[in-house]
Amino acid sequence: MKNGLNVIVVLLLLTGLSSCGIGIPKGKENYVGMWTSETMTLNIDENGKVEYKRQVTDVSSKSVNGPIQKFDGDNFVVGALGIETTFVVSKPPHEEEGTIKMTVDGIELTKQ
Asked: How many whole angstroms separate alpha carbon 40 and alpha carbon 59?
């Protein structure tokens, strides 16, 4: 029973650590939302949780799920437990002809 309890405690700690992030800082609220292109989806919620999926080729994709750890200029870092991914934002959220767009990792995304 003691080993089972230890496993539960470790899992709770890991879950708690993986959900820690900075949230969305003041001035970056326009990043929040569902962003899409033909090959990428990026969802950033109001608490700073990110769900990302990118179709790299016909048979492979990349996904990242986790909290935003920090912003570095327009870029943001997502991760937990020392595993981090930097999203390079070459064009932050902006309006173009009535549509909100952002370019992340070289892909133009449209806010849904």
From this structure: 14
Number of domains in the chain: 1
The pTM of this model reads 0.80
What 3-state class would DSSP assign to 24? coil
pLDDT (tens digit, 9 = 90+) per residue, 29-58?
A: 999 999 999 999 999 999 999 999 999 998
CA distances from 42 to 17, 37, 80, 110 (A): 22, 9, 18, 10
Nearest to 80 by CA among 68, 63, 89: 68
CATH number at residue 97: 2.40.128
Beta carbons of 17 and 80 less than 8 angstroms apart: yes
For the segment 67-85, the average pLDDT, to the nearest whole number, is: 96
Provide the greatest CA pair distance for the chain: 62
Amino acid found at 33: G
